[in-house]
Amino acid sequence: MTGKRTLSETQSALEEFQMTSRELEEDLEQIDCDDLERTESRKKSLLDLESKYNKAIERNVILENEVEEKNSLIEQVQRLKDELKDGELGPPTPSSEPVSPQKKEIYNPPAPQPSQKQL
Prior knowledge:
This protein has one helix spanning about 1-85.
């Protein structure tokens, strides 16, 4: 009887082990799926963030170029003001002949004469 009992206990233990093994495999598959979903979600988030970062960098470069251009123009205007103030640049001198817009002559035909009636 101990042999049957041991065989029965062994079979029961084997069945319990197989059930536990299946449950653990299912849990592992579920964990793998969850991990995969989280990984994909994180990857997508990182790609979106990278895209936003690149756009921000491009915008900053454009703004930096505009600031440099503005500063250059400010320096140029100040230099011209200083030159004008110091007399290096005189006021614009008029040329010897005044510039006037060209006048177009318009042909005006003579007014018609009233016709004389013969009597």
